[in-house]
Specification:
By secondary structure, this protein is α/β, with parallel strands linked by helices. 33% of the residues lie in helices and 20% in strands. The chain has an eight-stranded mixed β-sheet, with helices on both faces. Helix 1 runs parallel beside helix 2, helix 10 crosses helix 11 and helix 12 packs across helix 14.
Length: 420
């Protein structure tokens, strides 16, 4: 948890003070902080939001918004609460009501927590009258939710606060807010890691080493650039290994299920070094000119396990009938986490850091790494081509659902802030 920052960069100071009467930015209605990860934008934006509310509002309703309510608690409240309490701000949260009361004596306000995870989320905030709203990771929320939240700020003197990491240049947030900041009377500040004086040089170096290609340009350089070319453009066959001969601690199987499309399964074993994709099953019914049944795929999974104690099968969430067959046979089945872009980022990070390793025995997975591409045309959101993606999907399922967590399935930490 964070104390109040001992040192602030000029850009962070501008965020902290933009609403004050002495600030040259005081006439702006909106502040947008976008750019690199670990650049210090979210903490200073959150602190500034609460300090503004306590100084300029009394008995008002305000909103804190993220992709999920748990994300709001983790990324905003957990990070900012110690620093705000250090300044003497009173704080009381009613968790069951997703509401908190915060402020200085005589200047307390009510803050509501909202999750903007899909198009239906706009209805949750509709009808409220707000004095201010903070939208954390605004670019990963639906446009309808962001616009509805902004429209709720109808109290005189109300202000809007936004943060996000860059996406593609066709993204609606870039087109409608970043490029139109002047029209919307918004102060837009682009952050890099150099704008965070509290980030140690070795941590900066670590983050720069963790990202590659489009993700490096977005999350390290803070640029709004289109995804193009190979998804895992850093992957080389030289990164593959033979499976370790011993030291296995636990086993999983991941599965991307298809009827007409190929089915891909991977056997994963963990040693003290990390996770290894030891063996695979890959069946292309078009190529073989015969579709397999769920029962036949269950037989193939059992053969892949080869008598090992499998902790769980991480399955394609859409494969309902196949999962039911596996459960009837006594397998423990978990639906995979299936946020594609977040899963790709997680997979890339784990591959680059060696926490997951593809063994030379997994020839179809290695083949797909050399073919798996982004769509060439920027459509506003990143899209991968729906071809040569079956082993890629089962690897992504495993990375996001198991390998990104510590032994036993408990969360061990993430380089990126998760977009849940």
């Amino acid at each position: 948890m964070n104390e109040f920052p001992k040192a602030l960069s000029p850009k962070q100071r501008r965020v902290m003070n933009w609403w004050r009467k002495s600030s040259p930015d005081r006439d702006k209605d909106v502040i947008i902080c976008d750019g690199a990860v670990r650049s210090g934008k979210t903490l200073c934006l959150t602190l500034s939001f609460f300090l503004w509310a306590s100084a300029c509002c009394r008995g008002e309703q305000l909103a804190l918004c993220g992709k999920t309510i748990e994300g709001v608690r983790r990324s905003l409240l957990f990070q900012a609460a110690p620093a705000l309490k250090q300044l003497g701000l009173r704080w009381h949260e009613q968790v069951s009501k997703n509401r908190l009361t915060a402020g200085f004596p005589g200047r307390e306000n009510t803050f509501y927590l909202f999750g903007g995870k899909d198009e239906g989320s706009a209805a949750l905030i509709q009808g409220m009258t707000l004095a201010g709203v903070l939208l954390d990771e605004a670019a990963v929320m639906p446009e309808s939710f962001v616009e509805q939240a902004c429209a709720r700020c109808s109290v005189p003197g109300s202000r809007i606060w936004m943060s996000c990491n860059p996406e593609g240049p066709g993204h609606w947030f870039y087109q409608n807010w970043i490029l139109r900041a002047g029209e919307r009377n918004a102060l837009r500040l682009r952050f890099t890691m150099d704008d965070n004086p509290g980030l140690a040089p070795e941590i900066r170096a670590r983050y720069r080493a963790l990202f590659q290609g489009v993700f490096y340009r977005r999350f390290v350089l803070g640029e709004w650039v289109a995804a193009q070319g190979l998804v895992y453009d850093f992957f080389r066959e030289e990164m593959t290994r033979d499976p370790p001969e011993s030291g296995w601690l636990e086993w999983y199987i991941s599965c991307d299920y298809g009827t007409v499309n190929p089915t891909s399964m991977g056997l994963w074993g963990r040693t003290e070094e990390g996770w290894f994709r030891v063996k695979e099953f890959y069946y292309d019914s078009r190529r073989e000119k015969r579709q397999k049944t769920d029962e036949e795929y269950a037989d193939a999974l059992e053969a892949l396990a080869a008598g090992r104690e499998i902790r769980a099968v991480i399955a394609d969430p859409s494969a309902a009938s196949f999962m039911e067959v596996l459960r009837r046979r006594g397998w423990r089945v978990r639906k995979a986490e299936n946020d594609v872009l977040s899963g790709i980022r997680t997979t890339a990070r784990l591959l680059r850091t060696g926490r997951i390793v593809i063994c030379r025995t997994c020839t179809d997975a290695i083949r797909e790494f050399g073919l798996y591409r982004w769509e060439d045309r920027d459509r506003g959101t990143d899209r991968v081509r729906k071809e040569n993606d079956h082993a890629m999907d089962d690897i992504r399922y495993f990375a996001a659902t198991v390998a990104n967590r510590g032994p036993g399935g408990f969360f061990a930490g993430s380089v990126e802030r998760e977009r849940i």
